[in-house]
Amino acid sequence: MRRVYMDNSATTPVRQEVIEAMSECMKDDFGNPSSLHWFGRQARRRMETAREQVAGLIGAEPEEIVFTSGGTEADNMVMKGVTQQLRHKGRHVITSSVEHHAILHTGEYLEKNGFDVTYLAVDEHGRVDPDHLRHAIGPQTTLVSIMLANNEVGTIQPIEELAAICRENGVLFHTDAVQGVGQLDVDVETLGVDFLSLSGHKLYGPKGVGALYVRRNRRFQPLFHGGGHERRRRAGTENIPGIVGLGLACQLSHEELPERREKLVAMRDGLIAGLIERVEDVQLNGHPSERLPNNCNLSFNYVEGEAMLLNLDLQGIAVASGSACTSGSIEPSHVLLAMGVSRELAQGSLRLSLGSFNCTEDVDYVLETLPPIVDKLRQMSPLYHGKE
Amino acid sequence: MRRVYMDNSATTPVRQEVIEAMSECMKDDFGNPSSLHWFGRQARRRMETAREQVAGLIGAEPEEIVFTSGGTEADNMVMKGVTQQLRHKGRHVITSSVEHHAILHTGEYLEKNGFDVTYLAVDEHGRVDPDHLRHAIGPQTTLVSIMLANNEVGTIQPIEELAAICRENGVLFHTDAVQGVGQLDVDVETLGVDFLSLSGHKLYGPKGVGALYVRRNRRFQPLFHGGGHERRRRAGTENIPGIVGLGLACQLSHEELPERREKLVAMRDGLIAGLIERVEDVQLNGHPSERLPNNCNLSFNYVEGEAMLLNLDLQGIAVASGSACTSGSIEPSHVLLAMGVSRELAQGSLRLSLGSFNCTEDVDYVLETLPPIVDKLRQMSPLYHGKE
Amino acid sequence: MYTEKVMEYFTKQENVGEIPDADGEGTITSPTCGDLMKVTIRVKDDVIEDVKVKTFGCGAAIASAAMLTELVKGMPLSEAMSVTNMDVAEALGGLPSQKLHCSNLAADALQEAIADYKERNGNEATGQRGKRKEVPCQLEEAKGK
Amino acid sequence: MYTEKVMEYFTKQENVGEIPDADGEGTITSPTCGDLMKVTIRVKDDVIEDVKVKTFGCGAAIASAAMLTELVKGMPLSEAMSVTNMDVAEALGGLPSQKLHCSNLAADALQEAIADYKERNGNEATGQRGKRKEVPCQLEEAKGK
Ligand SMILES: Cc1ncc(COP(=O)(O)O)c(C=O)c1O
Ligand SMILES: Cc1ncc(COP(=O)(O)O)c(C=O)c1O
User: Fold this and answer.
1) Chain B contact partners (≥3 CB pairs within 8 A)
2) Of B125, B170, C120, D85, which sits 20 to 30 A from C15 (CA to CA)?
3) What is the CATH number of the domain that holds C95?
4) 0.90 cut: is pTM over it?
């Protein structure tokens, strides 16, 4: 069966170069970078090269990169670590209502532990209003965390503006850039952020490795205690092959970014236009222009997302949905609900997320396959009375 | 140059089978196990097979295995998570003075956050006295954490007895088995533990992945908040290739354990006897019999560990030392000091840790190479007046 | 997540739809996940001669609906009245636990349809309708009804 | 961790040892990591004619010792008195920061030896001895002295 993978926001395929570099690293440079001997020094050299590659992609200095086990760890590290570090200054944190669960649920954890958390509302396109942030900041506020780009609807936030507001107010700013890095120009200086999370498996690198950018002299309580690794910011023997893979993925992203973006945008726009043309009663979720190059999120009236997803899967197409049934929770996508999308339309949402491994034929195959599925499901739906 | 790696307690080489399985997994089964589609299901299947393999090695049920990013995370998870979960019951934790820093420094963190921590003393062989534990347990005690085997001197603790005492007293028991798993018979039922940490890169598996065994119905506050992964015990996209590698390493360990142990013990005993025979003023650190099959820890009077280590490295031999200079701290090995070894002898300690990749020729090469190095350094030492 | 059997029923189209001028009709919605099901039945000589179902819902919901229709087609009403959501789940060889009580609504919708049939025919509703509370997932009747 | 140059000096054996009947002798120990160094000098016409050193210590300590002996051999005493640990570290092209102030003791030991020489010859000790506190790592004299 023809298989088309359009769930690159969940995770990307891994670049062959990355797989090979990791295998080679495990074979030849298996040492522990803390060891003084040759094997250790080889491993350390590998790690420091990777650190430069990661830093290079986001315009940071190598010492500002802390390797983690992924985006979730990076998010937890900054949310818990900064608030704990500054808890004597204040106990108020601001984030948005459309963050990834790694931020939202950490916010809830903080609330249970004596912190106040403000979840900024978003507009119908999923954007935070900088004025809302300005009003939410108080003397107790120590940290603001707003994602660079949303994982469900792809909406890009006005990070520069938000970070500038924080800086003016002496508040630290973190952005979860897990979805943005590798697709967008991300420069920590331009953005003006203090912390930034990224994750290997979203940019054609390995799973189980990510990084937190920490601006020089920004302190936080570590999440792991133990050895003095990562300049005492993250204990634990470093995942050298993973780090090597992340480094290479970042370097490739750096080199290929403009080309990659152009290609993704072309496919994305073809997909969106094609589906809207072929299917009635469809709405695009997210921002019309300020959106990730790879994101296509649509709501199909009268049908449920998982049913579409499973039918597509039967035809070899892999996508995601914001329906309650696939989110594993009672509610459908908190992102769509926060944007004011009705429950029914949230239930009927589908996220098709492109990647650099996709091609125009993939788009065509989806344009061919999806409309009849929607049609079939509508015929099965008690909500649909269109052309019964 | 001939290279002999005898630092397997720092990290092991990775089995070729493991490297291949991981590469294949990254290539073919790159999906996110949370995804409903085929790619996701493939990844989930891989992960669940690995979970069975890990559980199989330690006599656990698959649902009792939580995958982590390594031993340090597992240790932090249980130390912080259990104490937090039970903080309304009491705020006292017991551990030993010879634990890995992942436990000790987490203990210090807990002390700074309102907990009492007792660090049990050890005898000259590095063993905890069960009676000390019995006396240390109070009504406030919620968790006891004692390592299975020490990473520096290889001393094996009487875990069965210690765990039984905890059970009698209604206190949860964790063992950091990072050094023991893969070398010793480890069965969570026989040991009677509630939690157990293990790490991939200590048993010929990959770095950046480990596991925490959690006995059924034992609850703890998660260290990472976010998605509902690992039955809500550890958020974050799972490191599937790492998990696959860990699973395979566990299965291979399971199959090869008796043979591996026999081989290690033979090499270890040859190494210890050979060095004691060839070098004067040497002492074996750790327990004479209750010690890891792969551990040889010796103190060489009048010379400093790093200097030996570097000279060995110049001859292609990779080892570790407990000297202050290599531990990265001001004090030499806290383990040796806790065992009553003098500072000077702690400074002159060397750990040679064998692995299943070593062979008798490696041992012979060390027996040939190390004595002249010690001799040379003693001639250089102002402390040595033996045969000047 | 789903077994092969569930996926097989997910794709069955035989009894999908709505019987025109049905003898009984029942609609039910799951407040927890928003799934919606409408069952229509044709009854002859106290036997369910035909049954059709329309579903707005996930894989489990669609498969449950298909299984239900197969189970009760040709079944005497008296027997059909005791068919529960759990029977449907069992016939499917099990459903993922998180779906068991939210998308597995088909039998409830059938009981609504039977009750509707009985009401239309002057009988008291005595089916499983009153027993719905046994299913942990709290069901409420569809707004449309 | 160490540069090639440091490793080169680490392996140098030329000036390792102790001068019998030396004109001056200095021993110093680092309380932070326990490194110990003993410098012996032979002085002729106010020039360091020969210098030898014994070290109990890590790579940085051994390399510093070797570098020091090379630096000061043949140097007038007046000049040698101003050689500091930092000079040694610089001559080595740098040392890892954590080693800079604990294993880099050689110049201090030399100053002790010069002071010893001067005392033996009735002169007041005027070398760098009193300046040791400039080095952040607090040094104390070896117990053996
Ligand atoms: C926006 C965002 N933040 C955080 C994460 C978590 O990253 P990871 O899966 O590497 O833990 C993800 C992806 O899952 C994400 O999309
Ligand atoms: C006894 C012990 N515990 C914990 C750890 C930490 O494990 P990891 O390196 O996987 O974080 C190690 C090894 O470093 C160890 O030897």
Assistant:
1) A, D
2) C120
3) 3.90.1010.10
4) yes
